[in-house]
């Protein structure tokens, strides 16, 4: 799990992204802040969609650490016996760091976005197209057909 910066209305906003160890995109979320509530919201949404992981690799961000601790506290309240292990190593999140460049390659020529809603919609399309390109959604079907079905 990691976040990257995107410029909206001249201000930096944060694109939270989660990628598994095989390079498949699990979830993404655009947030105006990089703090504990934003990280907690992203982790909760990611866990709801993808299930409970054993480990999460993050950088040394305090917001992400606080978010995982808050999620572990919630899981303990629900009766989950094993908390999510948090791994904070400098080079273990290189998979997600390298995956950021595909998003940056598409957004850098745009020189930022005018509105948060348009940035979120555009980044959703870029992420879905990137997931299709990686062969992540439905193997054996034409990528254009998948995109057309998702867009409809």
From TrEMBL:
Keywords: DNA recombination, DNA-binding, Transposition. The keyword Membrane does not apply. Pfam families: DDE_Tnp_IS240. Residues 1-151 form the Integrase catalytic domain. InterPro entries: DDE_dom, Integrase_cat-core, IS_Transposase, RNaseH-like_sf, RNaseH_sf, Transpos_IS6. PROSITE patterns: INTEGRASE. GO terms for biological process: DNA integration; DNA recombination; transposition. SUPFAM superfamilies: Ribonuclease H-like. One of its GO terms (molecular function) is DNA binding. Involved in the transposition of the insertion sequence. This is DDE domain-containing protein. It comes from Shimia aestuarii.
């Amino acid at each position: 799990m990691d976040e990257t910066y995107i410029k909206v209305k001249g201000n930096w906003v944060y694109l939270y992204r989660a990628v598994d160890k095989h390079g498949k995109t699990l979830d993404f979320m655009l947030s105006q802040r990089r703090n504990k509530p934003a990280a907690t919201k992203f982790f909760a949404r990611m866990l709801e969609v993808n299930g409970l992981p054993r480990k999460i690799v993050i950088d040394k961000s305090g917001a992400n650490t606080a978010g995982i601790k808050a999620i572990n506290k919630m899981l303990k309240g629900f009766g989950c016996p094993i908390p999510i292990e948090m791994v904070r190593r400098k080079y273990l999140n290189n998979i997600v760091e390298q995956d950021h460049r595909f998003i940056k390659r598409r957004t850098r020529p745009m020189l930022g976005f005018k509105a948060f809603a348009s940035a979120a919609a555009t980044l959703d399309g870029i992420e879905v197209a990137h997931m299709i390109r990686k062969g992540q959604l439905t193997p054996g079907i034409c990528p254009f057909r998948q995109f057309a079905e998702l867009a409809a």
